[in-house]
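Two entries, shown back to back:
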Amino acid sequence: MGRIGDGDIHAAYVEFRAKESDKCLSAQCIYCQSIRAKNTSRQRAHLLECPAYLNAMKEHNPDNPILHEAVNGTPTQHTPAKAHKKRDLDTMVNGFQGSTSSAPQSFPIPKPQLERDFQMSVQLNPKISVGPGIWGQRNWVSFVSGHWNGRFGKGTVVPGGQDSQLIAPDLSTHIDANYLLQTHDHPPAFIAVKMDGWRVGPRDVLEKLEDPSQIDEVDPKTYSFRVNVHMETGDARYLILNTGMWVASGVRRGTEVIYDAFRVI
């Protein structure tokens, strides 16, 4: 048998660039997740000793030439395997599912889904301009009060929450808010919330959002107000919130911000 085909080796690895500044690619074994520099000889040597890979080949592809070499020693003849096509975005999304006998075992990656989980309304104090800092124009906005209602409960927004906004030259606004939710239970539970994201859109639209007299005239579809939401609590009744992930869409209405939050599942 001759030289082992590169197709068998390529099919067992995911190639990526660990850092944008890296000149060389790295490769991760899809069977044991070990990472090494992209080098065909070293990748091949690893597969000869990778238990997860060899077990998978025994079960799904006993004719694999690397498996044959691992069991019987260095081969003397081999007809090169048909080269695999380079993985593209569609392959990454739908899982590595080959159609040839030398393809690795498929492992489709589940796609995240969104479920509408709660809605929240927050009343805001007028913004305070901190002024231009080292990162840009900084505004400080405090929360007056608010209320929320969702699948896991309902309650109020505790006064005193804060949003430290960073304004980019094009008026895009980075949101970085921290506040507390109080539930309507007896006794109530308290849930710490951190929210970060961006409000972006055409400059003329963002200018109107900064003018209290024009905010209500702005169509929410003309700008994007999206944030990530993280929650934390020590109350045993709501511990499930600690490991949850949410994304929310917001709109401005007068001195009020309304969020629709969707849980990522």
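entry 2 starts here
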Amino acid sequence: MGEEMDTEYDVIVLGTGITECILSGLLSVDGKKVLHIDKQDHYGGESASVNLSQLYSQFKKNPIGKDEIESKFGKDRDWNVDLIPKFLMANGELTNILVHTDVTRYVEFKQVSGSYVFKQGKIYKVPATEMEAISSPLMGIFEKRRMKKFLEWISSCKEDEISTHQGLDLDKNTMDEVYYKFGLGNSTKEFIGHAMALWTNDDYLQQPARPSYERVLLYCQSVARYGKSPYLYPLYGLGELPQGFARLSAIYGGTYMLDTPIEKVLYTDNDSENGNFEGVQTKLGTFKAPLVIADPTYFSHKCKSTGQRVIRAICILNHPVPNTGDADSLQIIIPQSQVGRKNDIYIAIVSDAHNVCSKGHYLAIISTIVETEAPHIELEPAFKLLGPIEEKFMGIADLFEPKEDGSKDNIYLSKSYDASSHFESMTDDVKDIYFRVTGHPLVLKKRNDEDAQEE
């Protein structure tokens, strides 16, 4: 195999996280000759889906044996647990990329049943329709009318029609000024900002309104697409996404090598600090390319901490979450102000309906930004909402981002996955790296039928 393999490529990609696999697929479709390498023997990198015995060995000092796991939780192979939980927005950019690249042929999605928000000790369903909004206990009757006017403005505002702006300038007015214009109260602002725009804290209030406007619009369009909730989730877990893009890359001639550690990174003048990327040395040989795309673990010296850490708790339940109408999947957002924090707490819940756990079980994955010296205690409000927990796995991760944009040394690095509950920030990173690597923005074009037939 080593003798027959090509040694020259257009792009080398290191790591099979979702970000890296999407870029590998997109560049392969563009006609680039891509070599994709991962030191691990499975797809997904930091964002892999693992079975229970892998989960135990990763998080527990004294992991229990496979027989004990199976007697307690059913077959090990029935479990596909996401290490980093996120949902897809039905109308979001990742969904658009999946549709336009036809990766939807390899990955099947199921809608998430509901989105909930925590308020004054209870959880409430985020209204998905006008009917639900009218009957929702989240707002009083007058506030509902004001909220309706706000949402009408969101859906009717057109960039080139000043009359639809209602005197607001999205780039000059802050989001707080927009709320004031519609007379919305604090709890409604919190609900819109955190459960619809999905901001993790309140910094957005003093910033220009455009990003918030776009996020609320995306939320509304995503709900409108299928009803119930704005979220989608792949059957068999998020590990299906990198594999889907790997298959796409392979169809277009991409080469994959798993379980292949990098022995040495090669630079043009043998000086790792000043040289440009030239290639990598592995047990299967030396491979060269003018540029590399990688996750932060491959070039940690070229990354810096964002100063934030994320805590995630993976909980196994043998019952649906109380007060959710026995939903098979949902998201719960605990806004920071409700529990005296600076950052929201997210809970993503999936079940055997998504082929990620054995029958009768549920997975609840909690994530937030660490704020204190006792991060485990910070998750208490979320644990209380879940009811009895059968097993709990906890991990803390530092968030990293590249120090430079890659233009100097042709090393393009992705960012760590944040605490948010969806893929929009990750997709922004994909588009940003794509632009820096190719020099032009990612334009999503549908593939024509002839291409598909030739395969």
